[in-house]
Amino acid sequence: MTEPTPTGYRLTEEQTLLRDTIRTLAFEQIAPRAAEIDRSGEFPEDVRQLLAGQDVLALPYPVEHGGLGADLLTQCLAIEAIAHACVTSSLILSVQALASLPLLLGGTKEQHERFFPDLASGKVLAAFALTEPEAGSDAAALRTRAVRDGDSYRISGTKRFITNGSVAGLITVFAVTNPDAKRHARISAFAVEVPADGFKVARLEHKLGIRGSPTAELTFDDVRVPASNLIGAEGDGWKLALGTLDRSRPGIAAQAVGIAQGALDAAAQYARERKQFGQRIGEFQMIQAMLADMDARTEAARQLTYKAATEVEAGAHDATRWASVAKLVAGDTAMAVTTDAVQVLGGYGYTDDYPVERMMRDAKITQLYEGTQQIQRLVIARALLGKPD
Amino acid sequence: MPLRIVVLTKPVPDPAAAAERLGADGRLDRAASPAVINGNDEYTLEASLKLVEAHGGEVTLLSMAPASGIETLRKGLAMGAHRGILVTDPALAGSDQWSTVQVLAAALRELEYDLVLAGFDTSDGVGGVVGAAIATMLRLPYLSSAAKIEPDPDACTVRVRRISPTGFDVLEAPMPALIVGTQLLGEPRYPSLKGIMAARSKEVVTKSLADLELDAKAVGGAASRSKVTGTTKPPARGATQVVRGTPEEGAKAIADLLASRRLI
C-alpha cells in the first residue's frame, strides 16, 4: 500500500476559516465599493482601515511584532479572497507584504522591532521601489544612487510605477551603493521613512486598471537615510530583490486567480438569468462550454498557485521556477477568463453596468507587474536550461 | 461586578450556500450543507460581547448540535466569546423543540450565569419558542424582543427595552434572567483574524446526554412529541424584471408597474 496523501494537501481548518472570514468581509464590505473605487480612481482609505481593523494587514508579520505569522499560502488565500471582490483593494495587502519582504529576509531584529508593529497594525503603509524609468524588466540597470556620508546615506534618483508610493510611510528603496562593483553587487536596499526632505511624489499614473491603487513616480533629491536603515549589507540589494520576488509572485498569481473567479461568478450568474431566444443563455451549449473552460482554467491556476506558495514557503531549491510558473499561468488565465466573461455578457459586459469590463482591465496588470510574462518565461527557461554562458 | 452571560447558539445551514436538503424522513440533512451560526444568534452574541466589554465578565456559548457543531462554535469564539459548550449525542438527532428545551435547560442547570441570551428564532426551524420555554422550565424572568439590554450588575438587575406595537416597553427584572434579542441590538462584528487564531486555544467542552444525566429515551429523537408528516417546496419564484436607469427613472418604472397591477 502506498502512503496516504498528507492532510497538508487540503487547507487546514484555520486556513479555511481565515479565508471564509476575509471572503465574507470582501463580499459584504468591499465588493459594493469596487465600481466606485475604479470610477473615482481614489485610494480606498476606508478599505485600508477595514483591512487593518480586521488584522488582515497583520498576516505577513511575525507574531512577536504584532503580526499573525501567516505562511505564504495563507497570505495567498487572503489576497485571492479580496481580489475576487476588488483587485485594487487586494493590492493593499499584496504591496504591504511585498515591501516588507526585504526587511523580513534581510532586516535585523532591531529593524523588525522598529518597523513591523506599525506595518502589521496598518498604521503605516509600505511601498516597494525597485523600478525606474530606464530600469523595468532590466531591473539591475537602476541608476538611483546611495552615497555613504558619516552615519547616513544620501539617496538621489527617480523611481517609477511605485504602487502605494503616494500613501506609504515606509518605502523600500533599491539604490546603487558601489557603481564599480559587478552588475549585481552594485545594489543595496534601504528602508526609507517618508515624508523626508528631498523626497517628492512627482506624479501619479493614469492607468487602464487597478485605478484606485496609486502608482507613483517618486523623486529622491539627496534624501538622508540613517545607516541603520540599510537592509542587510551593502551589495545585498539584488539578492534581496530576487528573494522578494520569489515570495511575492505567488501573491500576484493569487490575485489573478481571484480576478478570474470573480469574472467566472459574474458570467455564471448572468448565464442563469439572461434570456434570449426564449431560454436562459446558460442552456446554450456554446455558453456552457465557455463557462466550463473558464472554471477548469481558473481551478488549474488556483491549484498551481497554492502549490507554488507551498514550495516557496518550504524553501524548495526550484522555488524561483515555481513562483514564475504560477504567476505566468495565473496571469494568462485571468486575462483569458475575464475576456471570456465579457463575451458571455455580450454588449452588457462591455459597459460598466456589470463588473466584468473592470475585471478585464484589472486582469491585464497581472501579466505585467512583478515581472512581465516574458520575464517569467525567461526565468522558467533558465531553470530548465541553466544560465547562458 | 463582572457579568456571566450564556448565549444560546445554533448551527444552521449556511443560507449563502443554498445547499439545504431534506432527508428521507423529511427532516433537514445537516451534513448536506456547511453550517454557520444562526443569524439572529449573532446579534445576541454581539450584544453580549459589548456588555462584557463594558462591565467585564465572560461569554459562554451553548449549543446542542451534531459533533460538527464544534466548528460553528469556533466561529463564535473567533468573534470574542470566551468558551463553548457543545451538547452532542447521537440520540439527539431528530429532537423537536420540546426535547431541545429539556436538554438546554439541563445544561444551563450546571452553569452559573447572570444572563442567558437567545436569538429571536432560528433560520432553519423558525419556531421561536425555545427561549421562552427554557425560561419557564428554569423559572427565570423572561424578557423578550429586546432592542437594548442594560444590566446593573451591582444591583443584580437588568433592564430591557422591548419592542412593542406602539414603540418600546421598558422591563426590569432581577438577574439571572433570560432575554430573547432582536436585530435591533446591533450589527454583529466580523471576527478579526487575531480572534480566529485565538479561538484555537479557547476551551470547548463537549457533553453527552449521560453527562447531563438525561435518559436517551426521555429526550432526543425517540421522545420527540412532533413528527414531520409531510413537506412541500415553496412555489417557484416568478419571473424577475430588472429595472435599469437613473434612480428617478427606476422609481417611476417601479411605481408604474405597481400601479398597473393595482398594487398602489
Describe this structure in words.
The complex is a heterodimer of chains A (389) and B (264). By secondary structure, chain A is α+β, with helices and mostly antiparallel strands. Chain A has helices at residues 13-40, 45-53, 72-85, 87-106, 109-120, 237-273, 285-313, 319-349, 356-365, 373-385, and strands at 126-129, 145-149, 152-163, 170-176, 187-193, 199-204, 215-226, 230-231, 275-276, 279-280. The radius of gyration of chain A is 21 Å and the shape is globular. Chain B is built from six helices and eleven strands. In chain B, the strands form two sheets. A nine-stranded mixed β-sheet of chain B has the order 9-8-7-10-6-1-4-5-11, with helices on both faces. Chain B has a two-stranded antiparallel ribbon with strand order 2-3. In chain B, helix 2 (69-79) links the parallel strand 4 (57-64) and strand 5. Chain B starts with a strand and ends with a helix. The chains are: A alpha+beta (389), B alpha/beta (264). At the A-B interface, helix 1 of A face helix 2 and helix 5 of B.
Topology (SSEs and partners):
The complex is a heterodimer of chains A (389) and B (264).
Chain A: H1 13-40, H2 45-53, H3 72-85, H4 87-106, H5 109-120, E1 126-129, E2 145-149, E3 152-163, E4 170-176, E5 187-193, E6 199-204, E7 215-226, E8 230-231, H6 237-273, E9 275-276, E10 279-280, H7 285-313, H8 319-349, H9 356-365, H10 373-385
Helix pairs in contact in A: 1-3, 3-4, 3-6, 3-7, 4-5, 4-6, 6-7, 6-8, 6-9, 7-8, 8-9, 8-10
Chain B: E1 3-8, E2 11-13, E3 35-37, H1 39-55, E4 57-64, H2 69-79, E5 83-87, H3 97-109, E6 115-118, H4 130-137, E7 142-152, E8 157-164, E9 167-174, E10 177-181, H5 193-199, E11 204-207, H6 247-260
Parallel strand pairs in B: 1-4, 1-6, 4-5, 5-11, 6-10, 7-10
Antiparallel strand pairs in B: 2-3, 7-8, 8-9
Helix pairs in contact in B: 2-5, 3-4
